[in-house]
Amino acid sequence: MIRAAALAFVCFLAASAALPAQSTRPGISRNRAADIGYAVRWVAAVLSHRPGELDAAVEEIAGWDAGVVRELPIELLSVRRLMRDPRTRNFLVPSATTIPRQLIYSDSERESLRAAALSANRAGYRDDDLVLRGVLLHTDIATIGSTAGMVLRFSDGRGVGLERNVDHWQMARALANSVESSAGRGPDVALWYRATLALMEASDRWSVTHAAEAVAHFPDDAELLFLAGCLHEALEAARVQASLAGARLPSDTTFHVQPPRDELRLAEALLKRALDRQPAFVEARIRYGRVLTLLDRPDDAVKELRRATDAAGDPVLGYFAQLFLGAASEAANRRDDARRAYERAATLAPQAQSPRLSLSQLAARAGDRRAAMRALEPMLEQPSGVDDRSDPWWAYATSQGRAFDALMIEARKRLSTLHRVASPDAP
Predict the structure, then answer these.
(1) What is the distance between the alpha carbons of residues 272 and 237, in angstroms, rounded to a whole number?
(2) Is residue 384 a contact partner of residue 404, using CB atoms and an 8 Å limit?
(3) Residue 317 CA from chain centroid, whole number
(4) What is d(CA 78, CA 390) in angstroms, rounded to the nearest whole number?
(5) CB–CB of 205/148 below 8 Å?
(6) Which of 67, 207, 249, 374 has its CA 20 to 30 A from that of 117?
(7) Of residues 277, 303, 310, 273, the one with CA closest to residue 289
């Protein structure tokens, strides 16, 4: 969902805080005192927030309405300018047109913003430090708070609804993307995108916008390409397509989910890019091979999955590689190879149902009813009480995000790191 106001908001924040010279006289705008007050309170909340905790700062900002959050970036840009130069009186904001907008503040309004800027400087913050701590604040509101923004949520394979509140994910992205490359914080922002994408996918929440923004800003990051590819692989699934087909969405809401084959093509392209940049990325190769099979390219899939089975050291990844190699070999009409791959998968996960069912179906299609029944016997002989969800396949759709906890810890640590600059003197 991209409304006109939200699009302008993102375009505005993505612009650099340091504006180029303008040949056209800027327009003039006087900002409301309420907006300035919210900006001052936001700075105080960022300075007091303990990343990763549901504290008073999270509760306060989470209670603001969408209009307040949408207008915040205007005054925050002024705060950033004042952090760089407390004496500045020239406040320009980018515009979707070629004419920037000049903000006019009264002396008391400017002093309020300057005081907020100086409080951040005295705490050891540069303006990019303040922005990235703000990213963490809005991330915590979206994750441990109760306002998730707009994502499609699933549970046990069922679409259970649209989460749509004040979009703090959008605010976090816009802040992250506004950090200038000269600040040297690109690796920290990339890590934040990896951590948050992993968190979303591990919890079965899907945001095409979040993945697209990540890849657009870091097109050579293999892990981000991988996670974005996994998202589109997941969106191809019948559970997603069926949920969207029957969903009643608000008139101003659009999910950028394509038909199944288009989603597979997107996944294939992203996973291929990840492998081009990191050829030893085994998990990406396993998923790439599966996607190739679903795109009716089984011979190519077999080649990729054989490479993955040779390199997979993790038993679960080895299981997926063998299971998908069996499916690719079967699609390529290599039944003996398929049977051997399914058998190896069954060895790696003895209680898993998927390879047993695949062996049974393979035998049934060949007209061997006895072999079809024998393949199912280990499942039927399992004692009562054995977890029937012990098959790794049940967690496949979210398994790529399994490291999200460690990633989030590291992202919070990195984005919280301050440059500890000296506080500028007041004029």
Answers:
(1) 20
(2) no
(3) 22
(4) 55
(5) yes
(6) 67
(7) 303
Q: What pLDDT shows up at residue 144?
A: 87
Q: What are phi and psi of 253, to 5 degrees?
A: -115, 130
Q: What's the pLDDT score for residue 20?
A: 37
What is the rounded distance in angstroms from the CA atom of residue 105 to the CA atom of residue 288? 55
CA gap 130, 73 in Å, rounded: 13
The amino acid present at 128, given as its one-letter code, is D
Interacting residues of 318 by C-beta distance below 8 A, sequence separation 6+: 309, 312, 348
> What's the confidence (pLDDT) of residue 167?
87
**Average pLDDT by consecutive 10-residue portion of the chain (427 residues)?**
36 36 52 88 98 95 92 93 94 74 90 97 95 97 69 48 70 94 93 98 91 97 98 88 60 67 97 98 98 98 96 94 98 97 95 94 93 86 62 95 97 90 48
The pTM of the full predicted model, rounded to 2 decimals, is: 0.85
* Strands of the 158-164 sheet, one edge to the other: 158-164, 150-155, 205-206
Helix (H) or strand (E) holding 30: strand 27-30
Within a 10 A sphere around the Cβ of 252, how many other Cβ atoms? 10
Closest by CA to 208, choosing from 234, 172, 186, 187, is 234
Nearest Cα to 207, choosing from 159, 239, 163? Answer: 163
**Letter for the amino acid at 275?**
L
Residue 29, token pair as written in the block:
């705008």
Q: Cα-flanking dihedrals φ and ψ of residue 395, to 5°?
A: -105, 5
In the prediction, which pLDDT does 29 show?
61
Q: To 10 degrees, what angle do helices 222-235 and 208-217 make?
A: 150
Q: Do 233 and 291 meet the contact criterion of CB atoms below 8 Å apart?
A: yes
Report the b/e string of 322-348 with b at 16+ CB within 10 A.
bbbbbbbbbbbebeebbbebbbbbbeb
Query: Side chain identity at 341, as an amino acid letter?
Result: A
Tell me the backbone φ, ψ of residue 152, rounded to 5 degrees.
-90, 125
- Judged by DSSP in three states, 367 sits in coil
pLDDT of residue 425: 52
Instruction: Give the pLDDT score at 145.
Output: 75
Domains and CATH numbers, the chain: 4-17+27-148 (no CATH), 280-390 (1.25.40.10)
Q: Round to whole Å and give the CA distance between 209 and 243.
A: 19
Q: How many residues does the chain have?
A: 427
